[in-house]
């Protein structure tokens, strides 16, 4: 814990990953842990971790990088935070993100812009950009992120670290501030695949506080590390290797496939034919859910309250007008529109139907293949400020990660070479609740 704080002190002025530090509490916890007998210490005992700021932490400010939650001190821990404590992990602090997890560059934070540690002129990705940058910069070896449409995998790719979005339902969402409840999952970001598997073991499992958490066995994911991949079948979607993907990204994936082939895995081209509709489907559904979830921020119950209001309606309006940033407002408007009586059938309902088709695309490929492999992102990290005023280009960044959330299946990003000094990511996608095979393949490549 002390080392983590020293490193943060040394580099976070440049990287800007942390929003709030938990130093006093963390060092006290570390001291208390010293009395725990060796036989009661799990594999991650005593290790420092950073937590994305949309995961609530008792007594430690949780803002979702939004002005509207300024000063919000939760009165309970998220289930994952409780599990970290039970494993003897030490929460070092809260980490910067795009406001309410909406974005792909961490430029949408109301507080600060996190930078890519490999090149400070570039973004770390988003929305868990702070979580990926903190690991890449060596501030902490473990962080938690959340992934609704790519927010763990895309920043992991941009920062050259390992990020896993587990199967929907694998990890409890209790205490994760909801963005799009049918898509959100919490997951681990780490330096290597084995650490990642061990952290997922800690945070997984059914939770009575989250009715969408699944009552399925949690395997020892770390036992899959290093298992031979001979005979394993890999599908490579042609839609993920096409024109929109830059040549250096495509080449890095082909080189990774060679490595896997060298160990006896076989790969073939497959098709996920509805991929082209994923982006539109995702932005309709996620914005619809967000417009409903974010209705609770009214200036009464949490955080920020506009001072000048003279009546209740004005209080709601002024608090929300002042408290939410532009991107969040854009999503609330889009979502409210698509849920309104006149457009529900044409947009929301239709998007739900297309979501089912996208899910079926994956099911079909998984009838024959063990995993799907492709790039995590179409390009390496772009420059700070480069596309921040162009939401559609920003959205297109997640074109290869979003289908995974819509289908509810698990996916990881592992480092896969560099382009001009910036890391690239390899995405490995698995069957529902089969994170083990993903870790097996990821460790074979790593
Ligand atoms: N970039 C996507 C969005 O802005 C994904 C965000 C996420 O996964 N939280 O919605």
Automatic annotation (TrEMBL):
<comment type="similarity">
    <text>Belongs to the amidase family. GatA subfamily.</text>
</comment>
<dbReference type="InterPro" id="IPR020556">
    <property type="entry name" value="Amidase_CS"/>
</dbReference>
<comment type="function">
    <text>Allows the formation of correctly charged Gln-tRNA(Gln) through the transamidation of misacylated Glu-tRNA(Gln) in organisms which lack glutaminyl-tRNA synthetase. The reaction takes place in the presence of glutamine and ATP through an activated gamma-phospho-Glu-tRNA(Gln).</text>
</comment>
<dbReference type="InterPro" id="IPR023631">
    <property type="entry name" value="Amidase_dom"/>
</dbReference>
<keyword id="KW-0067">ATP-binding</keyword>
<keyword id="KW-0436">Ligase</keyword>
<dbReference type="Pfam" id="PF01425">
    <property type="entry name" value="Amidase"/>
</dbReference>
<protein>
    <recommendedName>
        <fullName>Glutamyl-tRNA(Gln) amidotransferase subunit A</fullName>
        <ecNumber>6.3.5.7</ecNumber>
    </recommendedName>
</protein>
<feature type="active site" description="Charge relay system">
    <location>
        <position position="127"/>
    </location>
</feature>
<feature type="active site" description="Charge relay system">
    <location>
        <position position="52"/>
    </location>
</feature>
<keyword id="KW-0648">Protein biosynthesis</keyword>
<feature type="active site" description="Acyl-ester intermediate">
    <location>
        <position position="151"/>
    </location>
</feature>
<dbReference type="InterPro" id="IPR000120">
    <property type="entry name" value="Amidase"/>
</dbReference>
<keyword id="KW-0547">Nucleotide-binding</keyword>
<dbReference type="InterPro" id="IPR004412">
    <property type="entry name" value="GatA"/>
</dbReference>
<comment type="subunit">
    <text>Heterotrimer of A, B and C subunits.</text>
</comment>
<feature type="domain" description="Amidase">
    <location>
        <begin position="1"/>
        <end position="438"/>
    </location>
</feature>
<dbReference type="InterPro" id="IPR036928">
    <property type="entry name" value="AS_sf"/>
</dbReference>
